[in-house]
């Protein structure tokens, strides 16, 4: 997304937005685009053992789906089958684990 003077001038494919101090964390959402069946997996802080919340929101910020799982030694993996729930559109998957937050783009288009 390219913004100038408050106006969107151009778009690009974003694969991940990271919020937080640790740039070494790596989470992926594959395949993308998809038909509502996808996997989120990867490494958080390698010492993190605890709850991971994943919230799927539409582009208006409305919560569509919430899922909770647990990371073990920083590794997290979650499989989703939401074909019946999701229309063809762009979404964001907001991931919270301890103090870390990640946002992954999701395109339902197949």
Layout of strands and helices, then pairs:
Blueprint: E1 2-4, E2 7-10, E3 17-19, E4 26-30, E5 37-43, E6 50-58, E7 63-71, E8 75-81, E9 89-97, E10 100-108
Antiparallel strand pairs: 1-2, 3-10, 4-5, 5-8, 6-7, 6-9, 9-10
Q: Got a strand count?
A: 10
Q: Quote the distance from N terminus to C terminus.
A: 23 Å
- State the share of residues found in helices, binned by percent: under 10%
Largest sheet: 5 strands, antiparallel
Main sheet: strand order: 3-10-9-6-7
What does this structure look like?
The strands form 3 sheets. Strands 3-10-9-6-7 form a 5-stranded antiparallel sheet, with no helix packed on it. It has a 3-stranded antiparallel sheet with strand order 4-5-8, with no helix packed on it. A two-stranded antiparallel ribbon has the order 1-2. It has 110 residues and is an all-beta fold. The chain is globular, with a radius of gyration of 14 Å. A hairpin with a 4-residue loop joins strand 6 (50-58) and strand 7. It is 0% helix and 59% strand. The chain has no helices and 10 strands. The chain has strands at residues 2-4, 7-10, 17-19, 26-30, 37-43, 50-58, 63-71, 75-81, 89-97, 100-108. The protein starts with a strand and ends with a strand. The model is unreliable at 1-5 and 16-22 (pLDDT under 50).
């Amino acid at each position: 997304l390219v913004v100038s003077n408050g106006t969107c001038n151009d778009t690009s494919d974003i694969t991940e937005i990271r919020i937080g101090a640790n740039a070494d964390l790596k989470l992926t959402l594959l395949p993308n685009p998809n038909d509502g069946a996808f996997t989120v997996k990867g490494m958080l802080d390698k010492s993190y053992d605890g709850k991971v919340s994943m919230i799927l929101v539409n582009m208006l910020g409305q919560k569509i789906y919430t899922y909770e799982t647990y990371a073990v030694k920083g590794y997290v993996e979650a499989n989703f089958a939401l074909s019946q729930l999701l229309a063809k559109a762009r979404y964001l998957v907001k991931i919270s684990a301890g103090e870390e937050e990640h946002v992954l783009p999701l395109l339902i288009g197949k």
